[in-house]
Amino acid sequence: MRGSTVFFGLLLIGACAVFSVWRGWLDVPAQWDPWAPLDVRDEPNLLTAYKLSRLQDNPELCDQALRTSSLRFSHQADSPADAKCPLSNTLRIQGGDVALSSSFLASCPLAVAYALFDIHALQPAAREVFGQKVTQVDHLGSFACRNVYNRTEGRLSQHASANALDIAGFRLADGRRISILRDWEKEGDNSRFLKQVRDGACKQFNTVLSPDYNAAHRNHFHLDMGRWRVCR
User: 3-class DSSP state for residue 106?
Assistant: First the structure.
């Protein structure tokens, strides 16, 4: 009984604190304010996933978050609602401080998660393992209007809503190329780097699938912002 009383007491205190922040009565740092725009430069915390979830249907909030990143992007026109794979609030990501092998389409949550990934996972891993930065990300694409694993039946892939990106490798400042297909199973710095990147990506994206998941992912990391939390 006493435990229940303590629990509900803490719940009430928490609710009062959230209400006070919402009304502006309690001043907290922006990264701990659920209603403050997401700044990708801030260290991710317990509110980051919630702030990412708010971006899909709010282009203005999306732009505010992306302006805190180095990404170059352009807004894409929404597709017809009756399209097989309709797209809305979709961006074309053209690169930034880190080049891309080609531009890619992205839902807003995917684009912002990618910016978080670059700052808080990819570059720290490169500095730790190699003492230099990643200068280019090589990818296999994002949008593809298809079912999971290209099956004729079943649910649509997250790629069908530009909510997933497949990364195949990275290029370092000294020109070195790191390939998931070639380097994942090897011993040494390249493999250690890739595994750190995979683990770091799991903190930014909802689903991360690597060669450890199955043979279909032997040559890339699948990163998406779907509803399921998977890190393999």
Answer: strand
